[in-house]
Amino acid sequence: MTQPVLDVQDLRISFGAHEAVKGISFAIHARETLALVGESGSGKSATALSILRLIEREGGTIGGGSIRLNDGDGSHDLRSLSDAQLTALRGNAISMVFQEPMTSLNPVLKIGDQVGEVFIRHRKFDRRKAMQAAEEALDQVRIPDPARRLQQYPHELSGGLRQRVMIAMALACRPKLLICDEPTTALDVTTQAEILTLIRNLQAEIGMGVLFITHDMGVVAEIADRVVVLRNGEKMEEASVHDLFERPKAAYTKALMAATPKPGSGTSTQQAGTETVLDVEQLSTRFAGKYSLFSRKSGGVLAVNRVSLKVARGETLGLVGESGCGKSTLARSILHLIEPESGSVRLDGNVLNSSSRQALRETRKDMQMVFQDPYASLNPRLPVHELITEPARIHGLVSRKDQKELAADLVERVGLERDAINRFVHQFSGGQRQRLCIARALSVEPKLIIADEAVSALDVSIARQITDLMLELQRTEGLSFLFISHDIGVVERVSHRIAVMYKGEIVETGPTEQILKNPQHPYTRRLLSAVPNPMPKQRRKSAEAFTAFPQESTTLAALA
């Protein structure tokens, strides 16, 4: 058998006294994709950073084991290389694509400068030749109008295009090994499908090995040849992707499989009421345009265009669509966190009207929101008992004397221990923080909760716990949910009905089973065709080019 591109043996990584990775071993060959899976804290990203020898910058140390890279010019012991030798290899023989391209790209440099730097540094090109190579690199990853993109800044591109820029930079020098650390987690399903297909096709062309880190078992089934399952820094299991999905051996692997939403696995069986809680009619929201030196303000962007929808008591309406289609803008417009241009919103028959601040404040009490990032949503300086009762105090529903008792009741309702009320946000895991966000929303006894990508950043098992909690609260308290997500599997599990949003409009609405089994709108059909199926036998062929349904972006970035 040929020599592997990457050979890791008995790797051990520590952060102070904590051993984060405990003697794991694996190898990756040319044109092979190895998926590294497991929950947050399992050691996946620490392993990736140690291969690039960046773990030291994060406060970690490699305590043992070997990491060998075979790049065709010889075998390199990455642990023994100097900083100068490592710099020569990074971005050249070995590259990495990170989860969030906006934090990986320099916001004050144009795309051309950032992609061109790779060629200047590793290929010793002059600036003119580097810009030509950068344009070709953007074209290779199927970025439209690459010459224009070179002159743009990262914030002017969509999330999917920014991720393609990162891939273009990573592949610029045709590396022998590409490390992808959750590169599609924050992307909608159509963009995700494009990125996965792109990586597979470029892998076949370049012949590189790929280490793909993810917690999404659907993505694993779509892209991996072999899988290593990690838990608490230890290797639980290693197998081919087909063997792992058909015959998992480790109990932890079986639990991961059980927590993964599967297409056709059924929808919410809880009975929804017939009384309307939320009634949105012809709602439109426009973002203001730009002023230029020689012209008046432009007409702006119509981000939400005459949207109408209803949510009944005890019902969950799933709202799906690509990034930039207007889902989050619609949610904020419903709450009047963004002022709509026209249309009406009624909650239990009461009209939300920004002209009466007091009335709006009273009505908002019955409608709460849970955001994607629980850490950014919670004040790190407040203890939990103050944090989750703050809305109730604002609305005069609880006194400071009684807030601890209310807080204890709330944390128990969301499945946490009573003594959690005296801790701070940083002392909780991501899933526990999201439970605190739900507890905070429940403090004012709302009739409707808008969940905006509330589980998209969570591991599959944690996401399952949160959706189980939502279903239980719906059963016991009759809560209604507007559930916004790009994960069709999760939407199928929790939603009674689905509304599909495209270019600021609702293009299709209906019962969940009907939408998923018999979609009528061509965009809905395209959206569903992009969902990764957690069954390796049904993956798309690597040669297939996935072309997303044409979308004219409705974001402000499109004006640039």
Automatic annotation (TrEMBL):
CC per GO annotation: plasma membrane
Q: What is its main location?
A: membrane
Subunit and interaction comment: The complex is composed of two ATP-binding proteins (GsiA), two transmembrane proteins (GsiC and GsiD) and a solute-binding protein (GsiB).
The encoding gene is gsiA_1
Q: What is the annotated role of this protein in its UniProt record?
A: Part of the ABC transporter complex GsiABCD involved in glutathione import. Responsible for energy coupling to the transport system.
**Name of this protein:** Glutathione import ATP-binding protein GsiA
Q: What molecular function does GO assign, one term? A: ATP binding
Which superkingdom?
A: Bacteria
Q: Does the keyword DNA-binding apply?
A: no
E.C. number: 7.4.2.10
Where does it live in the cell?
A: Cell inner membrane
